[in-house]
Amino acid sequence: MSEDTDLVVEFLKGCWERRVMAATAESCTGGLIATMLTDVPGASAVVDRGFVTYSNAAKVEMLGVSADTLEQFGAVSQQAAIEMAAGALEHSKAGIALSTSGIAGPEGGTDDKPVGLVWFGIAVEGRKPMAIKRIFEDNGREFIRREAARTALQYGVEALRGA
């Protein structure tokens, strides 16, 4: 098994052991987390759905992210990541939801929000949603997206351990 597969299986097993379904709300990863999860046979036992909300309109319409949040803080922010994860939990049958919003490049970075910045949201039923900020080295778009997907799953494993 690859390192990615081991991580995915660990997350899926954690969901199964805690009897919770999982949902994803992805922007910069564009569905990569959901793809990694559903690449594993039997994932349908614990994967409820994935939201790919690349545009701000999709974040508002599909997840209930506040337009005010997006206007005031931007899509790549702690606030948006939290609202995305919380919205995925609310709009699914999941007990855990992971969100990603970031700048994968090669363009779009600023001094305040450089290429490689990703905010991760984690929402677990019965707990206050949280967000974690990471800045990945700018080794190209695919590298950032892949590392963001892996990192989201690692945060998911950690959240399930704390369940």
Description:
This is CinA family protein. Residues 10-155 form the CinA C-terminal domain. With 163 residues, the protein is of the alpha/beta class. The protein has a single domain (3-161), classed as CinA-like (Maf protein), CATH 3.90.950. It contains six helices and five strands, in the order αβαβαααβββα. Strands 2-1-3-4-5 form a five-stranded mixed beta sheet, sandwiched between helices. Helix 1 (3-18) packs parallel to helix 6. It is globular. The mean pLDDT is 97.
Key structural traits:
6 helices; alpha/beta; CinA family protein; CinA_C; 163 residues; Maf protein; five-stranded mixed sheet
Task: Briefly say what this structure is.
This protein has 163 residues and is α/β, with parallel strands linked by helices. The protein is 44% helix and 20% strand.
Q: Architecture, according to CATH? A: Alpha-Beta Complex
Strand order in the largest sheet: 2-1-3-4-5
Low-confidence stretches: none
Described by strand count, sense and barrel closure, the largest sheet is: 5 strands, mixed
- What is the molecular shape? globular
When the domains are counted, the total is: 1
Cα Rg: 15 Å
Ends distance: 26 Å
- Mind telling me the CATH superfamily name? CinA-like
- The third-level CATH topology is Maf protein
Can you write the helix and strand succession as a string?
Answer: HEHEHHHEEEH
Beta strand count: 5
Give the structural class. Answer: alpha/beta
Protein name: CinA family protein
Pfam families: CinA (PF02464)
Organism: Tianweitania aestuarii
InterPro entries: CinA-like_C (IPR036653), CinA_C (IPR008136)
